[in-house]
Amino acid sequence: MARQRTFAEKLTALIDSARVDGRAPHSYRELSAAIERAGGPAMSPAYLQQLATGKRINPKIHYVEALAKLFGVPVTYFFEEDETPTTGGPANEAKLMAMRAQELSPRGRRQVMDLLDLVERYERAERDTPDDERTER
Asked: I need a labelling partner for 40 at 20 to 30 A (CA). Which of 51, 61, 100, 111 fits?
């Protein structure tokens, strides 16, 4: 089984593949400016370099979203085990939900947990209800 590539390795692969008219890969300064022009969060060239070299790990989700948008890949590209970007599955969706929840206030996280409890109870009730009772509703 092949080892999973790190965030840094995946980001570096995207940077290396981003060529304009056969020029060398974009500089971190060019990437930073492109993210800002696209309305993304401020990401300094130094921070981008730290992400690409593995000196910084676990970026906040809004940085990951900005990088994915810039390179035209799904956010899940950075979290998948295989090398081909796809839409991901339930495990990747759960990781993204958790990452986004980290950025919420404690009150916001409680509200999300309350919503998850509500959805879980609803789905459990749907599973436990016989098919004939559901069609009568």
From this structure: 111
